[in-house]
User: Fold this.
Amino acid sequence: MNALTSQPVITVSSLTKYYGDFKALDSVSFAVGKGWVYGYLGPNGAGKTTTIRTMLGLLKPDQGEIQITSINPAKDPVQALQSLGYAPELPTLQTFFTGEQLLDFTGKMFGLATQAKKEKIKQLLDLVGLEEWGDKKIGKYSKGMVQRLSLALALVNDPVVLIMDEPTIGMDPEATAHFRNLFTTLSKQGKTIFISSHLLDEVQRICTHVGMINRGRMVFDGPITQVLETFTQQWVIEAELKKVTKPMISALKRLDYVQDVKSEENKLRIELKEKKDLRGEISSEIFKHNGVLLSLNLHQITLEDAFLRALKGGQ
Amino acid sequence: MNAFQRIAIIVGYEWRRAIAKKKFLVLLILALALQVGLFALFYYFFTNPPPGFTVIGPSLEEVKAMMWLVGVLGPQGLFIPLIAIVVAGGSMSEEYEHGTADILLSKPITKIEYMTGKFLGGLSLLGFVIALTTTLGATLAYGLFGPQEYIQFVPVIYLVLVYSNILFFSMAFMFSEVFRRTTLSILAAVGILVASLFIGGILSMMYSMTQEQLYLEVSKWLPNWSVSNLPSFVASELITAPESPFVSVQGGNIQLAAAIIAVYTMASILIAALKLVKSDVTKRTS
Assistant:
């Protein structure tokens, strides 16, 4: 899904927030559609957590409005937050509870029936890999385990919208991969997922849409394919050969679709005029000049490149 | 789920949170132990009176028959207000300090429901503590000194004790929300309690020396006056026996004491609610 095809699940309009004289959010606007996995990116202090906490009604906006499933959480938190799950960044949970007790308490807050709650607790502890730890006090959990439990808590009410602030921070690579798959599964179930993260590789793997914020201002909002397209200046093919010759370089430079060719020892960097995969054409030309190819890669822009360019543009 | 159910969930949460605190348990055990110790001393004193000891006014038997009042009103002096302050002083602030306020308030509940649940949870816990000390006091009096007179008024005195302690409870609760720092809110409330005791003592002394009514009137508006005296005023109304040794409080004005408690309590709750509703939920501070 590349554009809003129905009523957005999350709408943030002209959101402005001050901390004293400091403008933490400056007219931030975006909309998140049903089933999207929206990656909210920005450097430290950009305003990601402030946006999320305002979306949850924890902070009062100075200007602008937020709607979650068409309800303003500041005006009607009971209705707006009923269908929402939230996992905060580096959560600190109530250490006097066991994992099961905290899940039970959270289930009660969402009005879950006793039997449904029992089954849900077991299912969620299994899902986050804490089945052996459910009856232990949270004070005994490691940071990674608290993070896992926090994700389980966010799923207690089977939410329509899942908001997660740096959800995999502090997790080991295995757990990170597990949760990445989980987010994808949840998205396929039709849940809308809003992830704030600075782990660009992770966002690129799982998100369908991206919002980028820098110094409180949105610098990009759109589908992930569009972000790469928007910030791609040119495509580059990098070739490693047994030997590079001057006639080969001259011939490559003469090609219509080649902008420039740079060589360094036995490596070539061929900058293309078009955003197109032309590895076949380039390899044919190299073979014509008796070149022996060791490797040939199309270097596409990564989300990190796009992010850095977006930030540069935003400044 | 309706608002009452949501408030009830927070009440239960507040009980668990408060009971998990070591300083609450230490104060409770200390209060109960002191009560037992006090009664043991009285028992020893009454069964082994020093040579030549005589009770002025009522007979020793009459004093023994009213010992339940010592047990019920005794902890009111300092321990119950301190427990009230410890329970309420961290009620709101600890959630900010630990970052759990974010977790609680991102659930389907309004800020007012959340605060009401927190307030009622702490207050009901305090009510339970007062019930424990009251029951222990009455039981010890009965067990050590035999049948007690007017003991049927224990439930009324209990309710008055709970009502009296709302004042320091709500004051500490307000500081907990306004300062959002537990140590600071407890210190502020204890400071007011101690200052109130101290200033009240000075004003009382000034009154004794000058007989100037103004000193007495001013002292009545100190928070401690109504909290300490309302239970005694009510007891003196209920227990009409002229020989009663523990309820001879002069100048008792139940209505005024009750009204002063209500004014302090309402003001504290209002300030706490305004602060919570009007301001942002602060992030973890510890």
Notes: The radius of gyration of chain B is 21 Å.
